[in-house]
Specification:
Blueprint lengths: L4 E4 L2 E4 L12 H21 L17 E6 L1 H4 L8 H16 L3 E6 L2 H15 L3 H5 L7 H22 L4 E6 L7 H16 L3 E6 L20 H11 L4 E6 L22 H4 L15 H14 L4 E5 L5 H7 L5 E3 L3 H4 L7 H17 L2 H17 L1 H17 L4 H7 L5 H13 L8 E8 L2 E9 L2 E6 L4 H12 L3 E5 L5 H13 L10 E3 L5 H5 L8 E5 L2 H8 L14 E5 L5 H13 L8 E7 L1 H4 L2 H11 L3 E4 L1 H7 L15 E7 L2 H11 L4 E5 L3 H10 L4 E4 L18 E3 L7 E3 L5 E8 L13 E5 L5
Parallel strand pairs: 3-4, 3-7, 4-6, 5-6, 7-8, 12-13, 12-15, 13-14, 16-17, 16-20, 17-19, 18-19, 20-21
Antiparallel strand pairs: 1-2, 8-9, 10-11, 10-25, 11-24, 22-23
Length: 766
Amino acid sequence: MIASWTLSSDGLCSTSPEPDDSAGVTEEGGARAASYTETLRLRVSSSLTMAAIDLTRGFLKDVKRIVIKVGTAVVTREDGRLALGRLGALCEQLQTLNSQGFEVILVSSGAVGAGRQRLRYRKLVHSSFADLQKPQVELDGKACAAVGQNGLMALYDTLFSQLDVTSAQLLVTDNDFRSPEFRKQLTETVDSLLSYKVIPVFNENDAVSTRRAPYEDSSGIFWDNDSLAALLALELKADLLVLLSDVDGLYSGPPSDPQSKLIHTYIKEKLENTITFGDKSRLGRGGMTAKVKAAVYASQAGIPVVITSGFAGDNIVKVLQGQKIGTLFHQDAHMWVSNGELNARDMAVAARESSRRLQAMPAKERSKILLDIADALEANEKVILHENEADVVAAKDAGYETSLVSRLALKPGKVSGLAKAIRVLANMEEPIGQILKRTELSAGFILDKTSSPLGVLLVIFESRPDALVQIASLAIRSGNGLLLKGGKEARRSNAILHKVITSAIPENIGGGLIGLVTSRDEIPELLKLDDVIDLVIPRGSNKLVSQIKSSTKIPVLGHADGVCHVYVDKSADMEMAKNIVLDAKTDYPAACNAMETLLVHKDLMENGGVNELLIELQTKGVSINGGPRASSMLNLPSAPSFHHEYGSLACTIEIVDDVHAAIDHIHKHGSAHTDCIVTQDREVADVFLRQVDSAAVFHNASTRFSDGFRFGLGAEVGISTSRIHARGPVGVEGLLTTRWIGRGNGQVVDNDKGVVYTHRDLTHQA
């Protein structure tokens, strides 16, 4: 029975939410079809004269030739049988469009699924009880296609015949399109059919395809009916391609997830490689991934595409009315978006508004958000690592440096380590609103200096996707809004991490709290927003940091280089020195806190200490270059520069006269990041610790300890070598500023005539 429909005040709606697909096509169904067809005819005839058409769908007024693709999940039921109700509603829509002068071309999946259901039944009928006890072999997909295609087209013919429409079947294969003569003949045949108002029904001829398994193989000119529909839209010069799915369109996440939002307009520059797709459809071979790929292909070639649900009985008509349903793909879509999706200012403003709502939350609720994020990361570890591995493979194929690939990779245990660090943050003392100083200004007038979030942070980082997690968790803990721009080499990793994190943020805070900037072109605009962005934190190369500092009025916090030194003094315990030097260089060579220059006291040349250090480093695969003295004395290749950050298993060694010479060398060639001395002489150590002007200075400890997590900060947003505000590893405290809160009882200044200032410190009083 074809579904019955009524016209309500809200538009056309079905009297039964799920049609009875098991019934046959009856005269009663045909009568309903005629009534429904008339309703659709009236709607379509007025649809394109509506004045209030959505501006992004305005091109529809010129549409004449339409390619419509219906997917397997729409054509068939859960049990594999053909869905008669949905197919009937589809045919009624196509008949109405056909009668209104639209040229309609249908691409229909479902043959393999329908054939599989039929053949399973035949196999069951002809199997003995003994046969059924044996392991069941999967049915041949080509045979399924042959059987199913016959039944599918018979049904289309029956349905269209009741609507006084003639349909035609056209089966094509991938190899057909390799022939220019075939493509020419195809166009002529379709043009001829459309001139007679015949509806061509296309399907890939899986039964005779020369590919090994066309229902599995994703190679060739087209590889499924979605890509076939896109190809036909181009070949036949269609004005519109509609891809019917089992969901309302493309979502920002799984459609079943309440946090997921329908994407009305696909902006390739904004969304490419940032959306993670789920499994393919239950019976088809493509799913949403294939639809998006086909839609992007067609739209970039000039054919507008809409992905929408085939479960609703009038969505094709709604599309032609210009209603904002489904997801639109168009080569000019980026020019139509006026809702702030690509607006840097709106993104920053949204982050500020969300941060203020975050700050207003009770401390326990803010902590719970972090705990939820930690749980979400662990729950999604497999998909995170999968996306990261794809980035790593792509980076290797693109020929990126080994050091960058190393920073890019999320090693085993990294996700759980990040989750653990977030839980440490969540359980820290509440950082916002702490009273740092309390003063009685005058009798009855108390002034508190309190900790307060900075506002909105813009963090631009390269390579390391784990930095996104650390930065986001620190921003939430400190009550700040955040905009993130990662490197293109980590695009997929950053996208999935951002999605996982934002999915744990409550709706009353808003997803705008943490914005992911996906286009490099947006950075210059963001750097102009000194009225809504409070701090820029670049994490990357010297070139990146320098460019940002020269391009903005917004305060910049960070470090350009990580040229870290280990100075081994003459009194050093050599076993300790070897352990520290090896750890500082080889524990994580790509890190900014790894040793790049080894300074050794000249006396170690005489007692063999230098050779011991060199042998240990070379045994671990470290390439060693020398400064002028070391090159000459040790016959080493010359270092490219004393101010050189290798970021790999390589370092520079130089011989110095004493601790003062070492300090002078560090001040002249270092980056003020992290430097250490290895010595047993306390006085020499104190000289080094007092005089080396770096953000972190260590005695008898590896430079690798210069890290927010290792410092007990929970995580770090970066390491600052600035001398204003935060310095060294920047945790929660570095993302806070202060506010003054005064509580009086009517005091006025009145030129200070009536005020008696006491300025009494009440900080430590209860």
